[in-house]
């Protein structure tokens, strides 16, 4: 009787929690690409600009993460440990907060949302999650002195081919006046920024929660005042104060709470249950699912080069996962975290 009560008091089993975390992570990452395209594409009648959506993301995440950071800083001070910066909102030193916050909190969001103005969601499906392993591996060689094994090199080669099939085709149309290549370039640079953040977080051995709080605090302190000054001073266009409140609230909840806070926690839970290798293989579903979502929900055509690029990138991710040392991925994933 006692053991039965004890078991029931523990709630859900670790397997159930792990499966739920994996499902939520994949769904949010997939929805991020589809929703961002539907919101930022001017042709779909959205009222918010990429800079408006970035504002909603940062403010939405800050509502949860800044009080959390304030609490962590005070707890650390009482214990006589830790660092703090940005008026006690970031639990990391100012130098680390600024470097990881610039790439992971500020540039990634602005560049990614701007890319959806020009390029379809299917392109983002290949070029953003697909380029992350490529950029991260190259930066890890330069910054962390990592070594690329032959099998991982094969995986990275497949990713490059996939990216070329997608981005190369749009680049050729640039000579005809096409603008899709601009979105493709922005997606690639956004992925580079997130990879830079991941490698820096790994180099400084940062905790995933503290790093996420720090980059959000940096983005809030830097971006929000500048955005408000430019928009309220009518120097730059912005529609947060004139758009329907339901749209603004939705973006704050999904982009801020969903993409930043919830997926950050569920990804870490998924790592704890499934381990790093199987978790990364699960997230390799995101490019295919988001491309399929773009076809179903946005009516985007899936041309042969997109399908082939998608297949090559997915295979490249899986090759890279199998080639990586499990312990190394575990440290990188838990410390650096990954999010859309």
Name the features.
single chain, 340 residues, mainly alpha, globular, disordered N terminus
Question: What's the order of the H and E elements?
Answer: HHHHHHHHHHHHH
The percent of residues in helical segments reads over 70%
Strand content: under 5%
Q: Profile the largest sheet.
A: none
Tell me the structural class.
Answer: mainly alpha
3D shape:
globular
Distance between termini? 45 Å
Radius of gyration: 20 Å
**Overall pLDDT:** 85
Question: What would your notes on this structure say?
Answer:
The protein has helices at residues 2-9, 14-40, 50-79, 94-118, 121-143, 150-172, 180-203, 208-232, 245-274, 276-283, 285-298, 304-323, 326-336. The protein has 340 residues and is mainly α. The chain starts with a helix and ends with a helix. It has one domain (14-336). Residues 1-9 and 325-338 have low confidence and may be disordered. It is globular, with a radius of gyration of 20 Å. It is built from 13 helices and no strands.
Task: Give a concise summary.
The chain is mainly alpha-helical and 340 residues long.
Ordered list of secondary-structure elements with their pairings:
Elements: H1 2-9, H2 14-40, H3 50-79, H4 94-118, H5 121-143, H6 150-172, H7 180-203, H8 208-232, H9 245-274, H10 276-283, H11 285-298, H12 304-323, H13 326-336
Helix pairs in contact: 2-4, 2-5, 2-9, 2-11, 3-4, 3-8, 3-9, 4-7, 4-8, 5-6, 5-7, 5-11, 5-12, 6-7, 6-12, 7-13, 9-10, 10-12, 11-12
